[in-house]
Design goal:
mainly alpha; 2 domains; DUF6594 domain-containing protein; transmembrane helix
């Protein structure tokens, strides 16, 4: 009796593992979703995306706070230069393609330059 119960447990475990694998295979077919080996990798990837979201928020909100605390043209230009330079270095570290690094840095610089132009007194 115990041997039969043990065999049933093994069958149930393999059926559950197979169902999880099929679910992960279907999820991997969705656009923008990368396949992962197990749920640990999936959670680690989620934490990585959350960390990138916080860094992105800091890169957008940080300069705005700094430029609003002391609202002069030179302060805006200095902080824009510092943040765009750091952003370019970090994107060059993570992004492989030269065009993508240049495009991302230029887009980020454009956002900050517009903010400087709209907030500095004339």
């Amino acid at each position: 009796m115990d041997i039969v119960e043990c065999i049933d447990c093994v069958n149930i475990k393999s059926a559950v593992a197979e169902a999880i694998q099929k679910t992960m295979d279907v999820i991997a077919l969705l656009p923008g979703v990368k396949p992962y080996d197990n749920l640990g990798n999936l959670f680690g990837a989620y934490l990585g995306r959350v960390a990138v979201a916080f860094v992105g928020a800091a890169f957008l909100i940080g300069p705005m706070w700094l430029m609003m605390l002391r609202n002069t043209l030179y302060t805006g230009l200095i902080w824009t230069t510092v943040f765009v330079s750091v952003f370019g270095i970090l994107s060059a570290y993570w992004v492989v393609d030269y065009t993508s690094v240049l495009s991302a840095t230029a887009a980020y610089a454009a956002v900050l330059v517009v903010f400087v132009g709209l907030t500095t007194p004339s």
